[in-house]
Amino acid sequence: MITLHYAIQELAFRRSRSLITIASVAVAVLAAVLLTALATSYGRAVHAPVETVGADMVVQITGDIPPKLEGLVFPHPNALIPANAVENIRGMDGVLSVTRAVYLWELAPDHYQSVLGIEDGEAGLQSLSERLIEGRPLKTGDSAVLIDSDFAAKRSLKVGTMLDVGGTEFPVVGIVDAARGGKVVRADVYMPIAPAQRLATAAPQVRALYPFGPDDANLLLVKVDRQSLEGVVQKVNALLGKKGIVSSELSFREALSGVLFLSQRMGLIVAAVIALFAAAFVLRATASAVTERRRELAVLQAIGWPWQRIRQEVLIENGVLALAGVLLGVVVAVLLTFVLGSVSVTIDLPWDLSSTPHFIPEATLDRTQTITVPIAIPWLAAAAAGIGGLVVALAVAAMLVASPPQQPWSLLRSE
Amino acid sequence: MNNETGIQVDGVTKRYGALEVLRGVDLSVPAGKFAAVIGKSGSGKSTLIGVVSGLEKPDSGRVLVQGHDLSHLDQRQMAELRRLSIGIVFQNFSLIPSLSALDNVLLPTFFDERTSVRERRARATELLDQVGLHDRMQHRPSELSGGEQQRVAIARALVNGPSILLADEPTGNLDTETGTAVLELLFAMGRARATTLLVVTHDLDIAAKADMIIEMKDGRIQHANT
Ligand SMILES: Nc1ncnc2c1ncn2[C@@H]1O[C@H](COP(=O)(O)OP(=O)(O)O)[C@@H](O)[C@H]1O
Ligand SMILES: [Mg+2]
User: Are residues A42 and A145 located together in one domain of the fold?
Assistant: First the structure.
C-alpha cells in the first residue's frame, strides 16, 4: 500500500509526463476500439441486404430475353440453373445450406407481378414467416400464397381472397412486411417452390428459352460460413463462368468504395498501423519516464531497496498510468459512438437483384437501399485493445527495469 | 563491541578504463569510530565510499562491513545490509523530489516487517525533530533549503539505526556556516548512536574531531593516523 502511495505521489508530481503517457495509451485504445466499431458496423451494413433474405449469397445466371414479353417469364438474370451446378455448390466447403427458388415475372397488359417460389428452410419459407404480419406461414405442401404488404395495399388484397397467378387461382393465406424485407430477392407473391415449378414448366415464354423441368430452379439462396465466404464466391464464379451472378456482401462492399477502407481487412490494417504508432508512443513515453528516473532509482538502491521492489514500484506506476489510459480510451470511445449513433450506407442494388423489371416504368428507378446500422462497441475488441495497451506499457516498463544498473554509484556520485 | 571492525578494506583496486582510481587500498575502521577521509579532488575518495557501500564493485581486494564480505552477498542480501546497517549521505542530498520530508525519511522503512507503520512514523518524526525540522515534515525537497534537505538526508540515513554511516562530502553543496552545522549534527548523531562513521570532508575542524584521519592521494592511502 505504501508503494502505491509513493506511486501516486510520483505520478502526481510528474503530472505532465503522466498525462502524456495516459493520453498515448488512451489514443491507442480509442483508435482501435472506434475503428473496429466502425468496421463492424459497415460490415453489418453491407451484409444486411442479403441477410434480410436469410442468406449470405444469392446465385443467378444471366439468361436471354424471351421472344414475347407476356405471361410468365423468367427475369433476364434468372436463367435455368442446371441441377448438377446446384449439387456442385451444395458440396462446396463452407456452404451450409442451399435453398432453391423459382423467380417469375407475370406480365399482363394491365398489371405486373413478381412471383417467388421457394423451398423450405432457413433462407426460404422460414425467413418469410419471420416477416409475417397477418395470416399464417406457408408450408411446403401448400398450394397457397403469401403477399407483400405494399402489393396487398396497391391491389387491395386481403387474407382469404383468391389471387390469379399464371391462370391458376391461389388463396392468399398471409401478408409479409415489405419494409423489413429489404429490396433484394423481393417479390409481390410468395409460394412454395412446387407450384412455381409447375407454373414455370407450363409457361410458353419459359419453354421457349429453357428446358426447365419440374424440379429445376433459377435462383439459389446460399448460406455460407462467413469465414469461407470469399473462397466460396470465387469457386461459384469459376463454376458458372461469365454468365453467373453471385451477390454477397462482398459485391456490395466493392460498390462502396468510399467506405472500403473500413472493410474488415483494411480496418485491421489501419488499426494495426495506429496501434503500432500508439505502441511506439507509449514506448517512448514510458522509456523516457524511466530513464529520467534512473538516478532516483539508484537512490532507492542506495538506501537499500531490493531491485525487485524498485521494479515493482516502476511497474505499479506504469500500470496505474496504462489503466487510466485504457479506461479513458474506452470511455471516450463509448461517448463517441454514442454521439455518432449509427452509420448509414446507401447501397445501389445491382439491377439483377432488384425485384422489379427495369423496363416497367411504374416500378423503376429506386433500386437504392439505405441501411442504417447502430454503431456498437465491440466489447471483445475493446477488451483486446485495453489489455493490449496495458501489456505494451507494462512490457516496456518491465524491459527497462529488468535488471539493476551495473554501476549505480556512477549515477549517484557528484563530480 | 568496540574491538570489532566496523569497516575493513583489504587491497582494493578499481579502474575506470585506463584510469586506476584505487590502487590497493587497505583500511580498517573499528566499530563506533569516526574516520574522516581527506585528499585532493580526483584522489579516489568518492570511489572508496562507493566500494564500501557496495554500490561499486572493486576489481580486486575485498570489503567487509560488520564482518560481512560484500562479494559474498547476492543482490537481495546486499540491499538488506544497506537498508538495515548502512546509512548513506550524499553531497547532492539525493532526496526523492515527489515525496515530503517525512515520506523521504520513511523510504528505507517501507519493507520493514519488524515494526508497525505507526512505530516507523514515530521513529521518522522523532528523527526529523532531532535534526530540527519538526515544522517542515510535509514539505517537499524543493520547498526546503540546502541545509534543510541535507538534514532530511541525515534523518533518512539514520532511520533504520544503521551501524555504519557513510557520507561523501555532505557539505559540498552548502555554504560554510550551514555546512559546519550539518557536519556537527552528523557527527553528534553518529556519536550518540555509536555509529561507525566514514566521512569524506574538506572541513579540517571536523576532521580534527575524528578518531582517525585518512588522507588519500592518487588512489592510495597516504596517511592514516589514529
Ligand atoms: N564512472 C567513472 N568513469 C570514469 N572515470 C571515473 C568514474 N568515476 C570517477 N572517475 C574518475 O576517477 C577519479 C577518482 O574519482 P573520485 O573517486 O570521485 O575522486 P574524489 O572523490 O577524490 O574527487 C577521477 O579522476 C574521476 O574523474
Ligand atoms: Mg568526490
Answer: no
Q: Cα separation of B15 and B17, whole Å?
A: 6
CA dist., res. B34 & res. B210, Å (int): 5
Q: Quote the pLDDT of residue B96.
A: 94
> All 3 cell numbers of residue A10?
510520483
Tell me, yes or no, whether A15 and A86 share the same domain. Answer: no
Give the domain range for residue A304.
2-48+260-414
Q: Are residues A25 and A123 in the same domain?
A: no
Domain boundary among A251, A271, A289: A251
Both A293 and A230 in one domain: the answer is no
Q: What is the pTM of this model?
A: 0.72
User: Considering only residues 284 to 323 of chain A, which have any Cβ-Cβ distance to chain B shorter than 8 Å?
Assistant: 295-296, 298-309
Contact check, Cβ <8 Å, A408/B55 = yes
Percent of chain B at pLDDT > 70 equals 98
pLDDT at residue A138 above 60? yes
Q: State ipTM.
A: 0.94
Identify whether residues A15 and A116 lie together within a single domain: no
Give A181-204 pLDDT, tens digit per residue. 666 678 899 999 999 999 999 999
Spatial CB neighbours of B53, under 8 Å, sequence gap ≥ 6: A302, A409, B82, B86, B88, B166
Q: Please give the grid coordinates belonging to residue A315.
A: 511497474
Query: What is the domain extent for residue B151?
Result: 5-225
Pocket of ligand 1 (CB under 6 A): A 410, 413; B 16, 19, 21, 39, 41-47
In whole angstroms, what is the distance from residue B104 CA to residue A384 CA? 39
Total domain count, chain A = 2
Distance from the Cα of B84 to chain A's closest Cα (Å) equals 8
CB A252 within 8 A of CB A44: no
Domain count across chain B: 1
Q: Given an 8 Å threshold on Cβ–Cβ distance, is A304 in contact with B83?
A: yes
CB contact under 8 A, B56 and A409: yes
Which residues place a Cβ less than 5 A from the ion ligand 2? B 46
The predicted structure's pLDDT at residue B1: 39
